[in-house]
Amino acid sequence: MTIFGPIITFVAMLGGMVTLYFALRRPIDQLDRKIDRVDGKIDRVDAKFEHKIDQLDKRFEHKFDQLNQKIDQLDKKFEHKFDQLDRKFERKFDQLDQKIDQKVDQLDQKIDQKVDQLDQKIDLHTNNLDQKIDQLDATSKQGADSLSHEFAEFRVAVTSLLARHDERLSALERRSPGLQLH
Predict the structure, then answer these.
(1) Is there a contact between 161 and 154 (Cβ–Cβ < 8 Å)?
(2) pLDDT tens per residue across all 182 residues of the chain
(3) Planar angle of CA 9, 10, 12, nearest 5 degrees
(4) Are the C-beta atoms of 131 and 181 separated by less than 8 Å?
(5) Are 106 and 124 in contact (CB under 8 A)?
(6) Which is nearest to 122 in space by CA: 173, 168, 172, 171?
(7) Are 104 and 118 contacting, i.e. CB atoms less than 8 angstroms apart?
Protein backbone atom coordinates (compact mmCIF):
# COMPACT_ATOMS: atom_id res chain seq x y z
CA MET A 1 0.00 0.00 0.00
CA THR A 2 1.01 3.33 -0.72
CA ILE A 3 0.96 6.42 1.24
CA PHE A 4 -1.78 7.72 -0.97
CA GLY A 5 -4.21 5.05 0.16
CA PRO A 6 -4.95 6.56 3.50
CA ILE A 7 -5.04 10.04 2.00
CA ILE A 8 -7.44 8.91 -0.69
CA THR A 9 -9.53 7.22 1.93
CA PHE A 10 -9.42 10.41 3.97
CA VAL A 11 -10.31 12.56 0.96
CA ALA A 12 -13.08 10.15 0.04
CA MET A 13 -14.35 10.26 3.53
CA LEU A 14 -14.06 14.02 3.51
CA GLY A 15 -15.90 14.16 0.22
CA GLY A 16 -18.62 11.97 1.63
CA MET A 17 -18.89 14.24 4.58
CA VAL A 18 -19.08 17.33 2.40
CA THR A 19 -21.74 15.65 0.28
CA LEU A 20 -23.58 14.60 3.42
CA TYR A 21 -23.20 18.17 4.73
CA PHE A 22 -24.68 19.67 1.57
CA ALA A 23 -27.36 16.99 1.51
CA LEU A 24 -28.31 17.67 5.15
CA ARG A 25 -27.76 21.44 4.94
CA ARG A 26 -30.91 22.12 2.94
CA PRO A 27 -33.22 20.24 5.34
CA ILE A 28 -31.39 21.82 8.28
CA ASP A 29 -31.80 25.29 6.73
CA GLN A 30 -35.49 24.55 6.08
CA LEU A 31 -35.83 23.30 9.64
CA ASP A 32 -34.09 26.49 10.89
CA ARG A 33 -36.47 28.64 8.83
CA LYS A 34 -39.45 26.67 10.17
CA ILE A 35 -38.11 27.01 13.71
CA ASP A 36 -37.62 30.76 13.11
CA ARG A 37 -41.22 31.04 11.83
CA VAL A 38 -42.52 29.07 14.82
CA ASP A 39 -40.36 31.20 17.10
CA GLY A 40 -41.79 34.36 15.45
CA LYS A 41 -45.31 33.01 15.87
CA ILE A 42 -44.55 32.20 19.51
CA ASP A 43 -43.20 35.74 19.95
CA ARG A 44 -46.36 37.19 18.35
CA VAL A 45 -48.60 34.94 20.47
CA ASP A 46 -46.57 35.87 23.53
CA ALA A 47 -46.88 39.58 22.64
CA LYS A 48 -50.62 39.18 22.08
CA PHE A 49 -50.90 37.26 25.33
CA GLU A 50 -48.97 39.98 27.19
CA HIS A 51 -51.16 42.61 25.52
CA LYS A 52 -54.33 40.75 26.52
CA ILE A 53 -53.03 40.31 30.07
CA ASP A 54 -52.28 44.06 30.20
CA GLN A 55 -55.79 44.81 28.90
CA LEU A 56 -57.33 42.43 31.43
CA ASP A 57 -55.19 43.92 34.18
CA LYS A 58 -56.30 47.44 33.22
CA ARG A 59 -59.91 46.30 32.93
CA PHE A 60 -59.78 44.57 36.32
CA GLU A 61 -58.06 47.59 37.83
CA HIS A 62 -60.72 49.87 36.35
CA LYS A 63 -63.53 47.60 37.56
CA PHE A 64 -61.88 47.33 40.96
CA ASP A 65 -61.63 51.13 41.16
CA GLN A 66 -65.31 51.42 40.17
CA LEU A 67 -66.22 48.82 42.78
CA ASN A 68 -64.22 50.69 45.43
CA GLN A 69 -65.96 53.93 44.45
CA LYS A 70 -69.36 52.25 44.74
CA ILE A 71 -68.39 50.77 48.10
CA ASP A 72 -67.25 54.22 49.26
CA GLN A 73 -70.54 55.73 48.04
CA LEU A 74 -72.53 53.03 49.85
CA ASP A 75 -70.45 53.57 52.96
CA LYS A 76 -71.19 57.31 52.82
CA LYS A 77 -74.90 56.62 52.24
CA PHE A 78 -75.01 54.18 55.17
CA GLU A 79 -73.11 56.60 57.37
CA HIS A 80 -75.52 59.39 56.37
CA LYS A 81 -78.54 57.15 57.03
CA PHE A 82 -77.15 56.04 60.39
CA ASP A 83 -76.53 59.67 61.32
CA GLN A 84 -80.11 60.54 60.30
CA LEU A 85 -81.47 57.62 62.35
CA ASP A 86 -79.32 58.60 65.31
CA ARG A 87 -80.59 62.19 65.17
CA LYS A 88 -84.17 60.94 64.75
CA PHE A 89 -83.84 58.64 67.78
CA GLU A 90 -82.32 61.49 69.79
CA ARG A 91 -85.25 63.74 68.87
CA LYS A 92 -87.76 61.01 69.76
CA PHE A 93 -86.04 60.31 73.07
CA ASP A 94 -85.94 64.04 73.84
CA GLN A 95 -89.65 64.32 73.02
CA LEU A 96 -90.40 61.29 75.19
CA ASP A 97 -88.32 62.75 78.01
CA GLN A 98 -90.23 66.04 77.72
CA LYS A 99 -93.56 64.20 77.79
CA ILE A 100 -92.50 62.26 80.87
CA ASP A 101 -91.40 65.50 82.55
CA GLN A 102 -94.78 67.08 81.67
CA LYS A 103 -96.67 64.10 83.10
CA VAL A 104 -94.60 64.17 86.29
CA ASP A 105 -95.24 67.92 86.60
CA GLN A 106 -98.96 67.37 86.05
CA LEU A 107 -99.00 64.63 88.70
CA ASP A 108 -97.14 66.90 91.12
CA GLN A 109 -99.69 69.64 90.49
CA LYS A 110 -102.58 67.22 91.05
CA ILE A 111 -101.02 65.96 94.27
CA ASP A 112 -100.51 69.55 95.43
CA GLN A 113 -104.17 70.31 94.59
CA LYS A 114 -105.36 67.23 96.48
CA VAL A 115 -103.23 68.14 99.50
CA ASP A 116 -104.64 71.69 99.39
CA GLN A 117 -108.18 70.29 99.18
CA LEU A 118 -107.49 68.01 102.13
CA ASP A 119 -106.12 70.97 104.10
CA GLN A 120 -109.28 72.94 103.29
CA LYS A 121 -111.46 70.02 104.37
CA ILE A 122 -109.48 69.67 107.59
CA ASP A 123 -109.89 73.40 108.23
CA LEU A 124 -113.63 73.11 107.52
CA HIS A 125 -113.99 70.14 109.85
CA THR A 126 -111.91 71.91 112.50
CA ASN A 127 -114.22 74.92 112.22
CA ASN A 128 -117.22 72.62 112.45
CA LEU A 129 -115.72 71.02 115.54
CA ASP A 130 -115.06 74.43 117.05
CA GLN A 131 -118.68 75.37 116.38
CA LYS A 132 -119.89 72.13 117.93
CA ILE A 133 -117.70 72.72 120.94
CA ASP A 134 -119.17 76.20 121.24
CA GLN A 135 -122.66 74.74 120.92
CA LEU A 136 -121.79 72.14 123.52
CA ASP A 137 -120.62 74.85 125.85
CA ALA A 138 -123.86 76.73 125.33
CA THR A 139 -125.95 73.67 125.87
CA SER A 140 -123.90 72.46 128.84
CA LYS A 141 -125.76 74.92 130.95
CA GLN A 142 -128.98 73.10 130.14
CA GLY A 143 -128.06 70.04 131.96
CA ALA A 144 -125.40 67.51 132.80
CA ASP A 145 -127.20 64.65 131.09
CA SER A 146 -127.54 66.37 127.81
CA LEU A 147 -123.93 67.60 128.06
CA SER A 148 -122.47 64.18 128.63
CA HIS A 149 -124.54 62.77 125.76
CA GLU A 150 -123.45 65.46 123.31
CA PHE A 151 -119.90 65.22 124.54
CA ALA A 152 -119.91 61.48 123.82
CA GLU A 153 -121.28 62.15 120.30
CA PHE A 154 -118.67 64.83 119.82
CA ARG A 155 -115.90 62.51 120.90
CA VAL A 156 -117.13 59.81 118.53
CA ALA A 157 -117.38 62.35 115.68
CA VAL A 158 -113.90 63.74 116.37
CA THR A 159 -112.40 60.29 116.66
CA SER A 160 -114.09 59.19 113.44
CA LEU A 161 -113.05 62.35 111.66
CA LEU A 162 -109.45 62.06 112.82
CA ALA A 163 -109.35 58.38 111.80
CA ARG A 164 -110.68 59.23 108.31
CA HIS A 165 -108.22 62.08 108.05
CA ASP A 166 -105.29 59.79 109.03
CA GLU A 167 -106.46 57.17 106.51
CA ARG A 168 -106.60 59.73 103.70
CA LEU A 169 -103.18 61.11 104.56
CA SER A 170 -101.70 57.59 104.72
CA ALA A 171 -103.26 56.68 101.36
CA LEU A 172 -101.90 59.87 99.82
CA GLU A 173 -98.43 59.17 101.22
CA ARG A 174 -98.52 55.62 99.82
CA ARG A 175 -99.36 56.96 96.35
CA SER A 176 -96.64 59.63 96.55
CA PRO A 177 -93.69 58.14 98.49
CA GLY A 178 -91.70 61.40 98.43
CA LEU A 179 -94.54 63.39 100.02
CA GLN A 180 -94.38 63.74 103.82
CA LEU A 181 -97.61 65.08 105.39
CA HIS A 182 -97.18 64.06 109.05
Answers:
(1) no
(2) 577 777 778 777 877 787 877 777 788 888 889 999 999 999 999 999 999 999 988 999 999 999 999 999 998 998 999 999 989 999 999 999 899 889 988 988 988 888 888 888 888 888 888 788 777 667 666 666 665 777 778 888 888 888 887 787 777 777 776 656 55
(3) 65
(4) no
(5) no
(6) 168
(7) no
